[in-house]
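Subject: Interface between my chains keeps coming out wrong

I've been trying for a while to get a sensible model of this assembly. When I model each chain on its own everything looks fine, but I need the whole thing in one frame so I can look at the contacts. Pasting all components below, labels as-is. Any help appreciated, I'm running out of ideas.
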Amino acid sequence: MDTILTTYNGVEFTIGTAILEFSYLLAAILFVYGLKLLSRPETARKGNLWAAVGMVLAMITTLLLHTDSSGSHIKMTNAIVIILTVAVGSVLGLIISKRVKMTAMPQLVSFFNATGGLASALVGLLEFSNPGNESLLVTLLGLIVGSVAFSGSMIAYGKLDGKIGNVSAGFMKYINFLILAGLVILTVYILMQPDPHAVSSLVYILFAAALIYGVLFVLPIGGADMPVVISLLNSLTGIAAALAGFIYNNQAMILGGILVGAAGSILTLLMCKAMNRSLMNVILGGFGGGGTVQGDEGGTIKEISVSDASILLAYSKKVVIVPGYGLAVAQAQHTVHELEKILESKGVSVKYGIHPVAGRMPGHMNVLLAEADVSYDKLVEMDEINKEMETTDVIIIVGANDVVNPSANDHPGSPIYGMPIINAEKAKNVIVMKRGMGKGYAGIENPLFFKDNTRMFFGNAKDSLQKLVNEVNTL
Amino acid sequence: MEDILIYFYTYKEAIFIIVLSIYLGIEVISNVPSVLHTPLMSGANAISGVIIIGGIILVGHSDLSHFSFRLVTGILAILFATLNVAGGFAVTDRMLEMFKKKK
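Reply #2:
Try treating it as a single job with all components included. I did that and got this:
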């Protein structure tokens, strides 16, 4: 393996290094292939598996074949330490991923994203003090991006888990800007030193500042904007890994990282589009804060009793359920599935209308309902379900608000004007399940609640659905 | 101007890889149905754990004869990256298992 094959570009290389590079190519192909399969429901599971195979392959060949600049291999003792660490990490990772409840999925995704970001930050931190490292700019960038991804994801985790509330103040914008400027200046200053390796204490300050930036950047962002933030942080972790790849000139890391970065960016933009807001607007925080004149809707709220609602549902042809974050909070996914089954057994066609930003992460409602065994062909995307609105007898809104607010269509002054919504008002009957008359995330009145064909069903989503299930059962 | 051209030439391979992989990433996942947004994100998240290769290289060539900050931090990096990789792929698989078509 160590026989020198030839000298290329002044670098001697051996059969071992050639095989190593070849395995990286294979791993990169598996990443791309895996992601491709992951984007189709029929093949998604296989895709995930292939990407994992690529990762394991790259890990094994690195362990066996990687040589440092002096041509020496990874020693046996080092290999054992690495294998033990990987074993501990894998067992922990597997246990966490099996134990965690499906409803805690947004938190978990954020948590795993944080660990990846931290690993990138630590690698950057260590490689900076390595005298042989000449790619200092990418090292520092990787350190910064990884740190922001780590602390940002941990805050996102805390917020999704309800451990951290919303902290927002107008001046935070300026502090964030100052820290960002400070990060840039410090990076340039370090790189301009005659011997940058000698100022490694400054690098720790950079590390700390980046961590603080991550915290302050996610802290003011509100719940409904979480899908944007989570996919953005995901993309940052990818970019951090890619940057670290440049330190080692490792193609598998570069390609894998950039793939994730690109995929995360697209998802981020998709989420922004689904809210009709720019990324800047989301990051700089909050909706403009009320301010808009509404109130001309007037009208009265009409409640509906359990028995009326049940009769209405049981004698409908077509029912559409629009879930929102309230469904996840009440953990009512199983109950809603029960209602769906009972109605179907009575010959009612039931579908779910899923808004792309319903919930706290991209695709949140899909995962939640899939956990309750709802078949995914019943989960209909916004544009598709909107085509069927006129023929829908009853639409049930469970714990959603802004995503069905008609102001988005016809109130140019409204903060959510222009946001694509599910046109619930066009259905023949609308039942809104809500805990109370509280406003949605955008903090604005929802004229849908005052429409003639709308009935309110107050209460916890799970209890309300359970009452409906019981009542429909007796019909 | 000259500096930019020199920079471009020096790093031409890297720049090619970056530009093409961005394009590839966009191509591969555009048009993904929203049903798969979470698994795709979580699967991609696991791939970003590829930083583990960096950790392996780092610890692999570290001096084990004495306890150093470098060694401990490197091991921590591997540990966190493994959490990301193993946990990420496992949880994605668990999610996708639920997506199996019901009759």
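Reply #3:
Confirming on my end. Confidence is low (pLDDT under 50) at residues 287-296 of chain A.
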